[in-house]
Amino acid sequence: MQFTRKGLKVEGFAGFRPIRNLETMRIPQGTGLFAVVVPEDFQGRFLTKSTAGVFKKKDPSLPEAVLATEWVDAAVVLYLGKAGPGSKGNRGLRRQIQEFVDFGQGKPPGHWDGRLVWQLADAESLAVAWKELPAGQLSSAEAGYHAAFVEEYGRLPFANLVQARTKAGA
Asked: What are the two backbone dihedrals, phi and then psi, of residue 68, each rounded to the nearest 5 degrees?
């Protein structure tokens, strides 16, 4: 797999909408994976304070040295996440991506993953792409993409702090 816009498109990812122009009603409601990708010529500059919301009284901001350590030079993909059906079956891509964006705008998150995205200067220029997948395939697909990214870059995408694994531990 190539972790480029073209490679993601070949893998079935669609959308590629800048966060600042994101129309959530155009995002599918089904389950799937989503990726946060950089626009061409994006510079990884870090803010002193994250724009993300506080979670369980924890500030999502990290020191610049920590952010610099997580940064993956030349990577187009900054985050790969999944959007499952939820316990009541009412979640999915649209809701998960909306919550992710709301979190970046300072609202309390429903999740903590991907928080490093919101400490980047000009995070609103980043784009979101998605790929619909049946709920039963999400965990293995996410784990596969994480493993492939690590194989190519030697580490996870910038804002993925924990590598996804399948239930069998693969």
From this structure: -60, -35
pLDDT at 19 > cutoff 90: yes
Angle at 154 between CA 100 and CA 8, to 5 degrees: 50
Instruction: Give the whole-angstrom CA distance, residue 20 versus residue 15.
Output: 13
Q: Which residue has the tokens 């909408």?
A: 17
Q: Give me 9's structure tokens.
A: 């498109």
**pLDDT, tens digit (0-9, with 9 covering 90-100), for 115-163:** 999 999 999 999 999 999 999 999 999 999 999 999 999 999 999 988 8
d(CA 31, CA 133): 6
As a whole number of angstroms, the distance between CA 10 and CA 100 comes to 25
The Cα–Cα gap between 17 and 31 comes to 18
∠ Cα 24 157 112 (to 5°):
55
CB 41 within 8 A of CB 74: no
pLDDT in tens, 25-53: 999 999 999 999 999 889 899 999 999 88
Q: Tokens 């061409």 appear where?
A: 40
Listing DSSP states for 95-113 in one string gives HHHHHHHHHHTTPPPS--T
